[in-house]
Design brief:
There is one protein chain. The chain is built from two helices and eight strands, in the order αββββββαββ. The strands form two sheets. Strands 1, 4, 5, 7 and 8 form a five-stranded mixed β-sheet that branches. Strands 2-3-6 form a three-stranded antiparallel β-sheet, with no helix packed on it. By secondary structure, the protein is α+β, with helices and mostly antiparallel strands. The chain starts with a helix and ends with a strand. About 18% of the residues have low confidence. The chain has a domain of 94 residues.
Length: 141
């Protein structure tokens, strides 16, 4: 009797594993990067502009599209990425990155690493440039 229960349990487990692997097998690449953040609006929270320090820019392919992987640090643990906007003018690419922090919060006073994928440029636009100006500072990618 115990043997039949073990066989039934083994068959059920194998079937469940088979179903789960079929349900999750897609052809999309889901690469994650360390400390990846999303854009966040402050909403009704009282806030002040946050400081963003950029360390590196890298052109990447996310499977569906190309983008720029922006890696850097926030000035403290309460800073959030608010917006990333691009501008192409006179054959130069520039990004404006803005951040915010809750002005009433008590935060760690240490640099906090982040990464963000900016995917609003076409592959053709990305391949046309090897440098980008971010908040007035020029970076190569």
């Amino acid at each position: 009797m115990l043997t039949q229960h073990l066989k039934l349990l083994a068959v059920t487990f194998a079937l469940a594993c088979s179903i789960c692997s079929c349900a999750s097998s897609d052809n999309k690449q889901h690469t994650t990067y360390p400390n990846q953040v999303q854009l966040t609006e402050p909403g009704a929270i009282p806030y002040t502009p946050g400081k963003v320090y950029i360390d590196a820019i890298k052109q990447i392919s996310t499977g569906a599209s190309d983008g720029l992987l922006i890696s850097g640090s926030f000035s403290d643990g309460c800073t959030h990425l608010q917006a990333v906007l691009h501008n192409i003018e006179d054959d130069s690419l520039s990004l404006k990155i803005s951040a915010w922090r809750n002005k009433e919060a008590v935060c760690t006073q240490a640099l906090v690493p982040f990464s963000f994928i900016y995917d609003k440029l076409s592959s053709q636009q990305l391949n046309s440039y090897s440098q980008v100006s971010i908040n007035g500072q020029t970076y190569s990618f």
